[in-house]
Structure formats: structure tokens, C-alpha cells
Amino acid sequence: MMYKQPYLRPYTGKESRTVCPQCKKSNSFTLYLDGNTGQPISPIVGICNHANSCGYHYPPKQYFIDNPQRGGFEPRPTRVIQRPQRPKPMGLIPIEYLDRTQSTDSNFVYFLTGLFKSLDNSISIEELCRTYKLGATKDKRVIFWQIDINGNVRTGKIMQYNPTTGKRVHNASGAIDWIHNTLKRADKLPDDYNLKQCYFGEHQLNEQPDKIVAITEAEKTAVIGSVLYPQLIWLGAGGVAGLTVEKSKVLKDRSVILYPDLSKSELPKKEQAFEIWTKRANEIRQTYGCKVVVSDILEKNATDEEKRSGLDIADYLIKQMRQAPDQVKVFQQPPIEVKAPGPIVVAEIVKPQPHPIRENEPKMLTDTSATSNRISGRDKRAQGNWDGRIMKLKAFFNSIDLPSGEIRLSESEVITDVQKFITSHLSYVKRYNGDITFEPYLLRLEKMKNILDV
């Protein structure tokens, strides 16, 4: 009988996942199956789905080394001459399936609505859902559609969230599902559908070619980051293994910041998310000429408990929004100024210049890593003051009646409270007059002036 390699059990529902022998979480352990019999090799031979918080992985090869009496060694394979086959075309999902699901009626969107309600009334949840093409199922699960840079629909990840806490629901009704699998079960797609995943949010790249790209593990984190820091394009990799060289070809020649989740400190270093993404960043940088940095802010500042829990930037921001919402602003907040348990780099990674900080004032939070990690090489103090530009802006805004309706600054920025926008932006540019880090706020004011000066 020809030897067949062991393989991981395909996902067919919660019954295809068992209890992890290490973290003891149910429906989270994927067993390796014997390639010839299709039966589990052993109840402890498999991989835990919680790569960061658990990281258990016992491969068949190591198991057979540890248990030689079980056999299982691969015999010398016989040489088989195969004719080259044409590459199978990539599977695409008809756009009408995406259009049918477009909705704000999901528990994830309910969570976002409650989260941002206390922060700033300028955020439009409907606009946010349109930007990321968020869908919803009848049982209020969210659909994170994967739409590539050319507008092709690859698949969609279906997930259930608690509408109050924003946490994933891990029971049977909350198990992750995929659009391509649901369509295959309904005989709407062929069984051999050739899935090639892309980044969540990738479709925005062509629309905003000059923006820095931020990539997180979770789709949820990317959505939240895009609200608080619209200066960046936020993409979701879909997990620690979702950052790949193949998917990253769309990042060619761009500037990218990676934000991996925290991992348990007792995991081997090579299995920790930060190390995995650092290695992958080097490969992407060398392959596509990208400027890629991996933020180590969470690694430097997280507690052991936070690492065990596998927290990410969104967890810190959500905690801050609930504890002190007045210190977190939407759209008007400087991209590197957030009061959180440790500095969080979001807009650009530069070595900080001396800057006076008043008592009880949120600190200027930047990465203090070496200047070789810079995305922007410009000196923050290189530009003169903006007194003349600020005076012209103030004179113009004081001379007109400000509109009460929405103003669209860009594809991703909709201002619903123009007066609040102008007041907050003027405050920042006067406070940090001449500081190049805050020039985007001056430019946005000038963009608003050009729109209103008709």
C-alpha cells in the first residue's frame, strides 16, 4: 500500500475540533489524521487553534520519534513521473452574494455603535460599514469580506460577537464559517473551489495609494483602528499565519507597519507572534521593496497576564475608551497621541525629539527604536512655524457661515460636525506649530477651506 502523508482534519463543524490537551479549551484542537486510514493518529497529536495564547503543536513526525513502537515512519517513496498540469484558476465569488449581505444588522456593528457613541458624533457607522463592505447574516453574525485590490471577491469570514463586550462568541453558534464553504454546501460553488485568500480591507489600496498601511491580525482590530486613525489604511491578516509573502505582493513599494498580537512569554521565541511577523516582514521587504516595520510597543509594555491573554492594540484602545473616553478622539486625535498602558505607535515610527509635557497631559507616544526603523526620515523640527497659514485659515472660517451637513474630505473621511472639526484642528496646529508630525492636521484644514471656498 502506498504511504500517504498525515494531514490536519478539515473543519466540518464543531464536532471536527476537540479539547486541547494543553489549554483545555473545547472545540479548539485540530487532530492530525493518518493519511491511509483517515483516523486520528493520537488524541494528543495535533495543533491548537489559539496560536498566541496556547501555541500547542505536536506533529506526527515528533510523535513517531517519541513512540517508535507505533511505527508510522515514511518509507522511501517510489518515483512517480507526472505530467505538468495547468494551474487551476483562482476561485471568485459572484459580486451579487456580497451585495445581498450588505447590512449594519450584526452584533459586531451593534458593539461598534455603542463603543464609539460616547467618543465623537462625527463618526458614521454606516460609512464605516460601506468602507469595509461589512455584511450580516440572519442570526446577526458579521461577514468580513475579502475583496482583493482589483475588486474581486475571494471569500468572507463569518463570525459571531457579543454586542456588549465585543468578544468573540466561541460556542457552537459562534463557530467561524466561510462564505465559500456555505456556498459549496448549497451547491452554489464547485467542491474544488480554488480559494486564495487576500487581506481584509485590501480593496482600499488602489483608492488611497499614498497612505501608510497598518496590518493587524484580527479584522475587528483593523476596523477599530481605521476609525481612530484614518490617516492609515488598516488591513486584517486574519490571524498570525495570515501574513504571507504571497498575499503581500499588493504592498509593493508601500510603507507598512505590522501590529502582531501578544503571545505567551513561555512559548518558544520562534513561535511567538512578534518573532513570526518579524521574520515575515524581512521576507516581504526583500521580495517587494516595501518599507516594513514591526511595532514592538506591546511587547515592551505588556504584563505577563496581558501576554497570556493574547491582547492586541484594539484591546488597549477599547479599555481606554471605556475608562476615559474624553481622552480618545475620533478623526481629531493626533495619530500618535493616545493615553494607554504603554506607547502605541500608529502613524509613523520616528525617534522622538525633546518635547515639553505638562502634568496630567497625555504623553507624546512614539517608538524609541533605532532610526533604521523609520518610515519617515524627515526631521520633525525641520519646518518653520505656520503662523501665516493659521491666520489665513482662522480669518476664512470666521468670515463664513459653516455648513451643518456632512463634508467628505476623502473616500475614508466624512466630517459630520464641521464646527467641532475646525475648532479641534486649529487647537492642535496652534499647540504644535511647526511640528512636522502634525502637519496633516494643517493640510486637512486647508483642504476643508478649499471645499468651502466656492
CATH class of the domain at 88-198: Alpha Beta
State the total count of DSSP E strands: 14
How many helices does DSSP assign?
A: 13
How would you describe the shape?
elongated
Strand residues, percent: 5-15%
CATH architecture annotation of the domain at 88-198? Alpha-Beta Complex
The parts where pLDDT drops under 50 for at least 5 residues are 329-383
- Most strands sheet: 4 strands, antiparallel
Summarize the helix and strand pattern as letters: EEEEHHHHEEEEHEHEEHEHHHHEEHH
Average pLDDT level: 79
Topology:
Blueprint: E1 7-8, E2 29-33, E3 46-48, E4 57-58, H1 60-66, H2 95-101, H3 107-117, H4 125-132, E5 135-136, E6 142-147, E7 153-159, E8 177-178, H5 179-185, E9 212-216, H6 219-228, E10 232-236, E11 255-259, H7 273-288, E12 291-294, H8 297-301, H9 304-308, H10 313-323, H11 387-399, E13 407-410, E14 413-415, H12 418-431, H13 439-452
Parallel strand pairs: 9-10, 9-11, 11-12
Antiparallel strand pairs: 1-2, 2-3, 3-4, 5-6, 6-7, 7-8, 13-14
Please give a structural write-up.
- This protein is of the alpha+beta class and 454 residues long.
- Among the domains are: 7-70, no CATH class; 88-198, DNA primase DNAg catalytic core, N-terminal domain (Alpha-Beta Complex); 387-452, no CATH class.
- Helix content is 28%, strand content 12%.
- It has helices at residues 60-66, 95-101, 107-117, 125-132, 179-185, 219-228, 273-288, 297-301, 304-308, 313-323, 387-399, 418-431, 439-452; strands spanning 7-8, 29-33, 46-48, 57-58, 135-136, 142-147, 153-159, 177-178, 212-216, 232-236, 255-259, 291-294, 407-410, 413-415.
- Strands 1-2-3-4 form a 4-stranded antiparallel beta sheet.
- Helix 11 runs parallel beside helix 13 and helix 12 runs antiparallel to helix 13 (439-452).
- The chain is elongated and about 85 Å long.
